[in-house]
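Entry for shikimate-3-phosphate complex. Fields follow.
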Amino acid sequence: MLLKPAHSLKGEIHIPGDKSISHRSVMFGALAEGLTEVTHFLQGADCLSTISCFQKLGIEIENTPERILVHGKGLHGLRKPDCVLDAGNSGTTVRLLSGILAAQPFSCTLTGDASIQKRPMKRIMTPLRQMGADISGLNENDCAPLAVQGASLKGIHYQSPVASAQVKSCVLLAGLYAEGPTCVTEPSLSRNHTELMLASFGADINCQNTSAVIQPEPKLTGQKIEVPGDISSAAYFIAAALLVPNSEVLIRNCGINPTRDGILRAAKAMHADIEMLNRHTISGEPVCDLLVRSGNLTGTVIEGDLIPALIDEIPVIAVMAACAEGTTVIRDAAELKVKESDRIETIVTNLKAMGADISATDDGMIIHGGKPLHYAVTDTHHDHRIAMAFSVAGLVADGGIEIADDACVRISYPEFYHDLNSLRV
Ligand code: S3P
């Protein structure tokens, strides 16, 4: 895909459904009794992988353009699949599903694509084993395919070494089936959709600071869920509207959960012009419309507790930083190395190829902004967020940009190029 530079972006974008919430709506709906009806579900490849895994576990799921209907069978209604469960590219599917499978009265195998088979799984296997799970993997037990033999579990208090919603959610889901309460404490608060949504399905879950405690064997009841727009998808339009001169874009229906709104906080520190309009709540999640106008950005420091609230947005924030005046330092973000690609490496290599002054550090990067960007071919490493972040960079690069494997945007935002091009004037 060759993208030409843009002179100005104007108009309105309706952001597709949140990926994390879409996954969870299917998973929790499957474990609830009765019907769960989901509107504005994200039809991205990752969420379709979750649907397909639960169908193989015996759950009837109707997927129509208007809504998803999940015919839940209760906590003990899953059945042994007659084939390997394939999570595709989706870390959320593998890690959350492992917590559920660890407690089922059957065995099964869970795998995914080449990227998934390289991603670390010890982070979930360690706590699950402490709970009594029988789970093993390849590569010294760190990688999928994972073999899970259901077992009886006991509640634990797990101090997670990483701020990861996937680890936290995996342990809490296993805790639904454990003997006694299960507690997870993390070093900084990661996204809290599991806690909010499980509570709305009827789970007994208590959250304080960076800890969550869940009681076992609740009766979960099917819900009606409207999925808010995904701030991680909105991020590309926020950045594009800030960077392309003479732009004004209204981004409708953007989720602004405080555990996810780090990009707004970082953009504010960079002196971005973003207005939050029409604040309201849908399905227990805060949302608003964002009115974004172009302007000059300045460098900033992004670190500490802010990192989990913008971890998936760092590729596009790095692009913003490359176009800002002054230096941006991103630290405490070693988690970037174990995402769909090693994002420290993919961001730094691809921005350097465009002429940016950027260097990698052990846990982030340092960007001296303001050098003009020019044409390059982006090697996405099949990473959807790298493809979209560099498409934004192409809008302000001399000669535009070429994205190798642009099709990977289907993972989280199938209509991305259509929506982006609709704003050009
Ligand atoms: C997700 C959690 C995050 C995030 C991923 C989605 C989730 O991963 O990067 O895209 O839905 O729980 P980690 O838990 O590994 O930080």
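NOTE: The longest strand covers residues 273-282.
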